[in-house]
Write a structure and sequence with these properties.
α9 runs antiparallel to α12. This protein has a seven-stranded mixed sheet, with helices on both faces. A five-stranded mixed sheet has the order 9-8-10-7-11. A four-stranded antiparallel sheet has the order 14-15-13-16. It is built from twelve helices and 16 strands. 36% of the residues lie in helices and 31% in strands. The radius of gyration is 25 Å and the shape is globular. The protein has three domains: 124 residues, Periplasmic binding protein-like II (D-Maltodextrin-Binding Protein, domain 2), CATH 3.40.190; 103 residues, Periplasmic binding protein-like II (D-Maltodextrin-Binding Protein, domain 2, 3-Layer(aba) Sandwich), CATH 3.40.190.10; 70 residues, ACT-like. Chain A, domain 2 (Alpha-Beta Plaits, 2-Layer Sandwich). By secondary structure, it is α+β, with helices and mostly antiparallel strands.
């Protein structure tokens, strides 16, 4: 079975997903022009589907695709029992947003979830109905409110601009996603101090319900190997240096990895964060620093993570 990968079909997330794969050396080419909903991946036999972010989450849960890129917020909302259905393989460093609890700025004495609990209880006593919370994130909201011990509320499912619900009079508080908080503030809302439910970003995720036959696993391993090699290269330098008899002790003390060694000439993989320490340790021994496109060093953490999550073949 061909490996299936779902990526966002439009917007900044699609652009960033395309940039991510191109940077890993496996660029995507969209089929049937810019409006096509299929793509191919250079060098690998992957069936790429272009779906909305929410459709990707649902497809991963259902096992309709093997891999997908979408927000962690949507994955956790779609699959409350996430670990049993989906494996989060790799955070991608884009698509950042937080799922938060927000209340009107006019509620000057409400700044924490405990304060909101008091407001909910007082609201129910005064109005003989529960305080309304508008949200698209019903599962995340229920779990977070239960953890906070809040029960005197009811969810109003939001079909449009959630931040406008309090002004429109359809809810008293909201749970929504935000990047800067500016839209919430513009609508007269504030985020509770301890009201961040989830700090989300785009994730490369694997469905545990998909049909992972030998072909799909092999293609996934090739793709994840390329992604891992590129990520290691971006986080590392290769140092080339001639070392004497105490080389192994020096290398071990610095926590570097030997890529190759010939007659005392070493190629060492050095994390960027350790470069200064390494250069100081090697001092006048003629170390040179190289940036590389990929580092294939035998380590396959992404593949190992996937295979450990999947049922045994």
């Amino acid at each position: 079975m061909r490996l299936t990968l779902a990526i966002p079909s439009k917007g900044r997330l699609q652009e960033q997903a395309n940039e991510f794969f191109a940077d890993a050396g496996v660029p995507l080419k969209q089929s049937a022009g810019a409006r096509g909903y299929r793509a191919t991946m250079r060098g690998l036999d992957v069936d790429v589907m272009l779906l909305s972010a929410s459709e990707i989450a649902a497809a991963l849960v259902a096992g309709d695709v093997h891999l997908g890129i979408t927000g962690e917020d949507l994955l956790r909302e779609t699959a409350p029992e996430l670990e049993a259905r989906i494996s989060l393989l790799h955070p991608l460093g884009f698509g950042f947003a937080n799922v938060v609890v927000a209340v009107p700025q006019a509620w000057i004495d409400v700044s924490t979830m405990a304060d909101l609990d008091d407001v909910c209880a007082a609201f129910a006593h005064r109005h003989r109905r529960r305080l309304r919370v508008a949200t698209k994130y019903t599962h995340l909201t229920r779990a977070f409110f239960a953890h906070a011990g809040i029960s005197d509320y009811r969810i109003v499912e939001s079909a449009g601009a959630t931040e406008g619900a309090p002004t429109a009079g359809t809810a008293e508080a909201i749970v929504d996603i935000t990047t800067t908080g500016a839209t919430l503030a513009a609508n007269g809302l504030k985020i509770l101090d301890d009201g961040t439910i989830l700090e989300s970003q785009a994730q490369l995720a694997a469905s545990l319900s998909a049909d992972w036959d030998a072909e799909a696993r092999a293609t996934a391993q090739a793709l994840l190997s390329r992604i891992g090699a590129r990520e290691r290269a971006k986080a590392s330098h290769v140092l080339r240096v001639r070392l004497g008899k105490d080389a192994e002790n020096t290398i071990a003390a610095l926590g570097l990895k030997v890529l190759s060694e010939t007659s005392g000439e070493y190629a060492l993989l050095c994390p960027r964060t350790k470069l200064t320490d390494a250069m100081s340790a090697f001092g006048g021994q003629g170390a040179t620093v190289q940036d590389v496109e990929y580092v294939f060093d035998g380590a396959e953490p992404l593949t190992e993570k996937l295979l450990s999550a999947l049922p045994k073949a």
